[in-house]
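Lab notebook page, bench 4
Experiment: in silico fold of construct C2
Operator: M.H.
Input chain length: 84 residues
Purpose: comparison with the prior construct
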Amino acid sequence: MPATLYVSHPAPLSAPLSRTDDAEVVPSPCHACGIAGGADWVKADGAGILVHNARDRERCPVAVPFDWETGKPLANLVLAAVAA
């Protein structure tokens, strides 16, 4: 899951940033729609689909899926999802 590290005290650090007492892990929002909780691209039937981690891997309603092999957008999948 993508994460942002926030330093919990000013430099100089007493230990490496890999120590959990020196940093706080904050999940990033979905980069397509902004819903909090993080997101991942997954392969489904040959297409890359953006899913929200915090919502039981629910498909992002605004992200455009792509062909997993070529990386080309699959706009027709977006139109089919809107019509359904």
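Observations: Strands lie at 3-7, 23-27, 39-44, 47-52, 58-59, 66-67. Residues 78-84 have pLDDT under 50 and may be disordered.
Next step: discuss at group meeting.
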